[in-house]
Write a structure and sequence with these properties.
Elements lengths: L4 H10 L12 E2 L2 H11 L6 E5 L5 H7 L4 E6 L2 H10 L7 E5 L12 H5 L3 E5 L2 H11 L7 E7 H7 L10 H7 L2 E9 L4 E2 L6 E8 L8 H12 L5 H6 L6 H10 L13 H10 L1
Parallel strand pairs: 2-3, 2-5, 3-4, 5-6
Antiparallel strand pairs: 1-8, 6-9, 7-9
Helix pairs in contact: 2-3, 11-12
């Protein structure tokens, strides 16, 4: 049974824990959203699920009730101890790492397990959502992700070219995933209530997904640091091998050298993967 707002406050008092704003600790207190997250993720007994920031364990318990294996990473030492005390002693299907999700994006899930297929269900803190996603899309890709995100982050993930929020993470993510649903979540569903809107986002891995090498990813990031500059000037001024060849290919396809990075459609970024 998910924690109510009252029971969440009481538990936090028992733990003598004050939610850390810097770590984005806004605890989910709406049972409907917890159940919706698990339902959208279509979690079953045969699944392996990664969770980031289990906090008080509300979502963790709901996932474990399906019979799935859960690999979780929690940075806060006090909350990690709570998870160990409440769930690990009688739950053989839960693995918990105490640490930063940027260093452990898959919560310690072995590569062999990840390659066999896994899902991610998480309530992501704002400060780590993009660097964490960057790390996830650089490794073995999950089959499905159901993520609670601040609306600003969700908009950036799904941004289309020619928009001001279209950037490197938009390219990496949309090259690998289709965004299949976007559910608005009220601030009242959290304790403490955040001052921003949230979105429950579902992402399904594409059958024709495109992966970018570490070199290509670094190159795309460099380009978007100067997103207002013309792409031609950026490519000609970059010493990265393959950059000029990619740019020449764009010109052959009718792309203007004065185009800016944010104006270039996703399909043209996919071709970059062939050059770098």
């Amino acid at each position: 049974m998910p924690l109510s707002p009252t029971s969440t406050r009481e538990l936090l008092q028992q733990l003598e824990h004050i939610p850390n704003k810097r770590l984005g600790q806004n605890f989910l207190v709406d049972g409907n959203i917890v159940r919706k997250s698990v339902k959208i993720a279509d979690v079953s007994e045969s699944d392996c699920v990664v969770e980031v920031g289990p906090g008080l364990g509300t979502l963790t318990k709901a996932i474990l009730e399906t019979g799935a294996q859960v690999w979780a990473v929690e940075r806060d030492a006090r909350l990690a101890k709570h998870i160990r005390d409440e769930l690990l002693h009688n739950q053989s299907k839960l693995r918990l790492i105490e640490g930063d999700c940027i260093n452990h994006p898959l919560a310690g899930l072995p590569i062999a397990n990840a390659n066999d297929g896994y899902k991610i269900v998480a309530n992501l803190p704002y400060a780590v959502s993009t660097p964490w996603m960057d790390a996830v899309t650089a490794g073995p890709l999950p089959d499905r992700m159901v993520l609670m995100l601040q609306k600003e982050t969700a908009d950036r993930y799904g941004a289309l070219h020619c928009s001001k929020t279209f950037g490197a993470i938009s390219i990496f993510l949309q090259s690998a995933y289709d965004i299949s649903s976007k559910h608005q979540v009220s601030a009242k569903c959290f304790h403490p209530s955040p001052k921003v809107d949230s979105v429950l986002l579902c992402l399904d891995r594409r059958t024709d997904y495109v992966r970018f090498s570490p070199i290509a990813r670094d190159y795309v990031r460099r380009i978007f640091i100067h997103r207002r500059k013309q792409l031609g000037a950026l490519c000609k001024g970059d010493k990265q091998t393959g950059a000029i060849e990619w740019f020449k290919d764009l010109i052959k396809r009718g792309i203007s050298p004065t185009i800016r990075a944010e104006e270039l459609a996703l399909e043209h970024w996919h071709r970059l993967a062939n050059y770098l």
